[in-house]
Amino acid sequence: MSNDFIDKALSKLESLKLSYADIRAENSLMTQIRTVNGRVETSTTGIESGIGIRILSDGTWGFAYGPMESYEDVIEMAIEVNKLNLRHKKRDIKLAEVKIVEDSFEGEQKKKIEDTGFDEKIELTLEADKAQEDEKIKSRTTLYREVLRRITLVTTEGTKIEYNVPYVMMYALSVAREESETIEGYSRIGHLGGLDIFELRSPSELGEKAKERALEGLKSPKINGGRYPVVLDGTINHLFSHEAAGHSAEGDFVQTAGVLRGKIGKKVGSPHVNLIDDGSMKESSGINSFGYLKYDDEGIPGQKTFVIKDGILKTYLNDRSSAVHFDQKATGNSRAEAYNVPQIVRMTNTYIAPARESMKEEELLEQVKNGLLLMQGGGGQVDPIKGTFNFGVSELYEIKDGEVGQRYRPTTLAGNTLETLMKITGVSSEMGNPLDSIGFCGKDGQSAPVGVTAGWLAVKNIVVG
Amino acid sequence: MVTNNLNEKIQKALDIGLKYAKKEGADHCEAFGVNEKAFNLELEKDKPKHNMGIQHGLSFRVIANSAAGFAYTSSFEERDIEMTVKMAIQCAKTKEKDPDLQPFPEPKKNTAKLPLDKKLYSVDSNTIAELFAEMLPEDLPKNTYFLQAMGLVGIGDSFLKSSQGLDLVEKGAGYGFGIGFLSTHGFPNYDFHFAGSRSLDGINPKEITKIAIEKTLNSAKPQTMSLAGEYPVIITPEGSYGLFGGLFTILTNLLKGDKASRGETVYADKIGEQIAPDNFTLVDDPLHLDMITSTLYDGEGIPTERTKLIENGILKTYYLDNYYARKLNMDSNGKAQRGGFFGGSPAKTPPTIGSYATIIDAGDSSLDEMLSETKEGFMLKSFMGIHMSDFSSGRFAVTGSGWYVKDGETKYPVQDISISGTIPELLMNIDMISKERTKGLNNEVPYVRVSELSVTAKKLDFKVRFGLKMLKTLVKLGIVKNPFI
């Protein structure tokens, strides 16, 4: 990374006597290998580099980005944008005080992505492909993806953080077909670390899981759409906590609208609910978590935040400006996907933990007695203004007399955030394997790595199918 | 306007890469560069969030050892360009030989014309900000509040050169504006309206606001219902191809040539078969004069064309690029894309198959006729959960909002209506298509009525409804502040 450009940009910004400015310079490495039916379909590798500059002047932001060497143009654009923003200013942006940080660190990798050859990565991807082979599997797709984020954050307040953080992920998609019936089976793993992830779960296991989901889906009956009492596994706990509850608590969004607006100190969930966002959770079950942050993109350490405690809304998730707006603490949730987008409030590892006595998974099944067990969430969408959500579910099982029974075809579940939070009747505390819950959260066109596998939840009823 | 000295750097960088690829033993090389200036205008309630920047990048796709490789960079340094080409060659050389791989396309001129609006191409940030400000309303109806206004402007040059002699420079400019309002009349609800154009005069900002307010009022005070069964459903143009994803985007995926070639879609080997009613015709038109995604050449430099995918209900072809067209023994219809208008740097990914501008031909029913033919059913306009659908079988289970239709009339707005089924069944069950069509940012489609669709819905719990009623009373009495505004 060219520190020369960063130093020059910082000097220039300091000379402008702005209220505040930060620079995010990036020079990240990315590789992607996609195999289809035993062949490498695409393999791409690249360097993403550039500079993003955010200024605060006259109580208003200005953000611009561009090539590193064009830093002077980028500063000019940031000033130009600041002036445009001033036309619509209704109130001053103020920033919460923070501790100045100087740090430099690298994410741990037992097997470094930089030291592993392209051939070996292709072999690993093909291993997952091979494991999906079956006469009923008509198409097998596997995607290997690695990112080495190399970022420098400097601020006019004196913070300087340089880091290299690696992420490795693998996805497998099997398509099973029998006569005119076609069904997809999906599986994915990922962690913040190197290729040592495949010592925790091999590509073959990943491929087998995708195949098994497709084949089981093919022979399983379709669930009749309707309202069912349910138990949600730890991946769907994360999905619900993140999509439905967490997005509605993001401090930038809540300033505009949302179902949790104006509800601080109020009861928004059942007394069983503690909603936690924990950027400081480096690992869970001995495995690196996907949403870990040593510092957020404003230089604030990642931390554990109780958003809801005993069913009561305690705080929003805040960056420095929303913290001042709500008179709360900055919670280390300011993140930007890359140099070319501004920081916004994002989650990290978000989940519901038991507020009261923790229950065992079997006890939750007993409590629901007759209903559905929903496992392995597969993506979700939320409307935080209306408070409605819709999630994909890969595995569905009937719960009959408290026992797991018949399997059903993958489908979706839908509900209302506040209503569902109120209907949680039990939570188990045992955290699951975080490899199963990795995801990229989308917001304002940006994606951010998030994910943790928490305990199971029992919910009085929810719409399935 | 784009930065010209960056254009020169890109041209030079592409030549360096092509030369170096030859030197390093690549059989063929294709070099792509982009220099785009982007204005992102946003006002979120009382928070201005405008930003701007230069989107730049280079990428190289090579064929070496009868396999393809791809790499990209955002650096213009000669050593970085050479390293990028080297990485692309390494990508290719570590792959198995691909017997279906052919050289990159030969240069071919598109005789069609797609005018560039010079005023938009050279627009400055002040002009665009003034246009944006025209959207902001002075007065609003009771219980209606401004939520968010957005403007996205992309002005850019892209460059494509290849060892086959391709040397293309495409200048493009397009923009889209949108605004949304919140209604607190009853259960809080909101709606947006967006418009896009390739011409600076092509958008009337005040008209966008007027339509957005109308839409918000039309969907205000939504109700939830408890039911499960088969009902006729009218899908609005926004519901089919909305900005945030429509139900028919699943169909687009099912018709991709790469999926068809791998047998990954229910429509594999179905060319020539009836897959929709006789009056259903689906077209992809990259040469549409006013779609922000229109282009003369696709991501591989192949001249684009107006393609009928489904004609009078018969599947005619798939969305095809150069490689999969050959695999399927067909001709490319120019559907290779390098990133969408609003989606990231086009230099970061190799060309992939997609649609440019979706057109569905108008039908012969009016919307009024479609409604009057509906004894009890729904008209739905937006859906959540489309991305979790099965893109092989076309199976979906999504949650939508819209209107409850009873005895031929829309009775009231509804939300949390879940519909499920498969796209092949849905298409065959279309029994009415409207004469009216709506133009979106990259589509122009009518209303379609599906005669029977599985619908499930659950009324909000009494406690939540009672809580909202109480809150409304407390707000009216001035005891608490309305938390929704």
Overview of the structural elements:
The complex is a heterodimer of chains A (about 475) and B (about 475). Chain A is an alpha+beta fold and about 475 residues long. Chain A has ten helices and 24 strands. Chain A has helices spanning about 5-15, 70-85, 120-130, 195-200, 205-220, 235-245, 250-255, 320-325, 360-370, 415-420, and strands at about 20-35, 40-55, 60-65, 100-105, 135-155, 160-180, 180-190, 225-230, 275-280, 285, 285-290, 305-310, 310-315, 335, 345, 350-355, 370-385, 390-400, 405-410, 410-415, 425, 440-445, 445-450, 455-465. Chain A starts with a helix and ends with a strand. Chain B is α+β, with helices and mostly antiparallel strands. Chain B has helices at about 5-25, 80-95, 120, 125-135, 205-220, 235-240, 250-255, 255-260, 320-325, 365-370, 425-430, 460-475, and strands at about 30-45, 45-50, 50-65, 65-75, 145-160, 165-185, 190-195, 225-235, 280-285, 305-310, 315, 335, 350-355, 360, 375-385, 395-405, 410-420, 430-440, 445-455. The radius of gyration of chain B is 25 Å and the shape is globular. Chains A and B meet through strand 2, strand 3, helix 2, helix 3 and strand 5 of A and strand 1, strand 2, strand 3, strand 4 and helix 2 of B.
Summarize the structure.
The complex is a heterodimer of chains A (465) and B (485). By secondary structure, chain A is α+β, with helices and mostly antiparallel strands.
Question: What would the keywords be for this entry?
Answer:
heterodimer, A: 465 residues, alpha+beta, PmbA/TldD fold, 2 domains, seven-stranded mixed sheet, five-stranded mixed barrel, 22% helix, B: 485 residues, five-stranded mixed beta barrel, 35% strand
